[in-house]
Amino acid sequence: MTLALCPGSFDPVTNGHLDILERASAHFDQVLVAVVANPSKNSLFSLTERQKILASVLSIYENCRVDSFEGLLVDYASRENVDVIVKGLRAVTDFDYEIQMAQMNCRLSGIDTCFFPARNEHSYLSASLVREIARYGGKVEGLVPPPVEEALRMKFTG
Predict the structure, then answer these.
(1) What is the tally of structural domains in the chain?
(2) Full domain range(s) for residue 94
(3) 0.90 exceeded by the pTM?
(4) pLDDT tens digit string along 79-108?
(5) DSSP string, 13-63
(6) Residues whose CB is less than 8 angstroms from the CB of residue 108 and which lie 6 or more positions away in sequence, other chains included
(7) Is 17 exposed, middle or buried (0-12, 13-18, 19+ CB in 10 A)?
């Protein structure tokens, strides 16, 4: 049984994230989607909100579960007996950063990283862009799942 770990801030989860998570769920027996709790980062959604939204949109995948962690990814991965870390790549700039992280993570823990390239329709998509669009009242339909659209609307319009 292969356990894949898909870490991220998911602030908010986008359709690009969901594409990577869906593909991971098709390739691995179990997928652990772990929300990074970074107290130094000023997140739009609380850790609990991000976990709740992810659990909602991932409920159609029986082999996915949502959790959170703080600290080093490799420490969390080792505690959870993870076999592989899964990351999505949008562009060369992502690759430059992620390959260094993958190499260091492997050096520290022996856990390999598997990369899924973003599909063309999601290659420009980022959570920070979605937050910016929503903050100024722009439409995020098609960029995020409906529960995220609603959560963003509530955050910015009350």
Answers:
(1) 1
(2) 3-123
(3) yes
(4) 999 999 999 999 888 899 999 999 999 999
(5) --HHHHHHHHHHHHHSSEEEEEEE--TTS--SS-HHHHHHHHHHHTTT-TT
(6) 72, 74
(7) buried
